[in-house]
């Protein structure tokens, strides 16, 4: 019987064993609390509805929302000739817009916090004045956060807050929005 080769010094072969159980990962978007008073004539923009995923500890789950946008454009134009009639040939292209969240929670058990790998992929369609088609923009952000079980953790913030004692006519549009994540046991 041959002995198995030893791993090089300083390397680790074993990974911590995670409890085999499902976890609930929730995502929500809220407006950051403020002591101010907001009055407006426009309805507030809707926030992302809370989303909930059930995922096996150490596995990954994907949450996507978006839309396919049809873009019709002119490929060629034929002038009328003695043997042919005039014609327009059109093309159809579908552009994607939306977001995908990929989460992989790893909870070691007990009262310890879960470590959550998060990958956010975005796709948007942006107008290009004078161009035949809009441009397709894509982006990606990858991070890892520590989330104590049952507690909301802010993973992203957009907008800016109004300093205390400051009054603005556009305060409602300036309120920061928070994207939060919570990991809990079902």
Concise structural overview:
The chain is an all-beta fold.
Describe this structure in words.
2% of the residues lie in helices and 51% in strands. The protein is mainly β and 186 residues long. The longest helix is centred in the C-terminal third of the chain and has 4 residues. The two termini are 47 Å apart. The model has no long low-confidence stretch (mean pLDDT 80).
Quickly list its features:
single chain; 186 residues; mainly beta; 4-stranded antiparallel sheet; 1 helix; elongated
Helices and strands, with pairings:
Elements: E1 22-31, E2 51-56, E3 61-78, E4 87-106, E5 114-126, E6 135-147, E7 153-158, H1 171-174, E8 177-184
Antiparallel strand pairs: 1-2, 1-8, 3-4, 4-5, 5-6, 7-8
Content of β-strand = over 45%
The whole-angstrom Rg is 25 Å
Taken from the alpha-carbon principal axes, the silhouette is: elongated
**How are strands sequenced across the largest beta sheet?**
2-1-8-7
Unreliable segments of 5+ consecutive residues: none
Task: Let me know the average pLDDT.
Answer: 80
Total helices: the number is: 1
Number of strands: 8
Helix content: under 10%
Termini distance?
47 Å
Query: For the report, how would you describe the main beta sheet?
Result: 4 strands, antiparallel
Estimated structural class: mainly beta
Succession of helices and strands: EEEEEEEHE
């Amino acid at each position: 019987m041959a002995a198995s080769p030893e791993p090089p010094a300083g390397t680790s072969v074993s990974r911590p064993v995670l409890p085999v159980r499902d976890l609930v990962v929730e995502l929500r978007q809220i407006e950051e609390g403020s002591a101010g008073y907001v009055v407006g004539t426009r309805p507030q923009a809707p926030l992302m509805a809370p989303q909930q995923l059930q995922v096996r500890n150490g596995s990954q789950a994907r949450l996507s929302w978006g839309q396919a946008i049809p873009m019709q454009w002119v490929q060629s134009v034929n002038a009328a000739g003695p043997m042919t009639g005039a014609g327009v040939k059109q093309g159809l292209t579908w552009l994607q817009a939306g977001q995908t969240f990929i989460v992989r929670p790893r909870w070691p058990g007990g009262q310890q916090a879960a470590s959550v790998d998060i990958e956010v992929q975005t796709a948007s369609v942006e107008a290009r004045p004078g161009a035949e088609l809009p441009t397709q923009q894509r982006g990606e952000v990858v991070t890892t956060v520590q989330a104590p079980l049952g507690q909301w953790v802010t993973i992203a913030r957009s907008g800016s807050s109004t300093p205390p004692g400051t009054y603005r006519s556009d305060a409602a549009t300036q309120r920061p929005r928070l994207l939060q994540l919570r990991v809990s046991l079902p």
